[in-house]
Design brief:
Blueprint: H1 5-46
Amino acid sequence: MDVSPAALVHAVAEMKRDQTTSEVQMQVLKKAQDIQTSSAMAMLNALPASLPLASEGSLGTQVNALV
């Protein structure tokens, strides 16, 4: 099987381009996951501390019904 040098160079260049594309896609994915992680942490940190139980009445004295 004879392979022309031009075809070989073309195949190598195409593989290199595909590899670069994959690396860029992975970097974008990691950046998106980092943004999502920081957004989720910001939302969790924005939640108020535990609310106190009701001190009177029949509801909310054992379990906090607001949560």
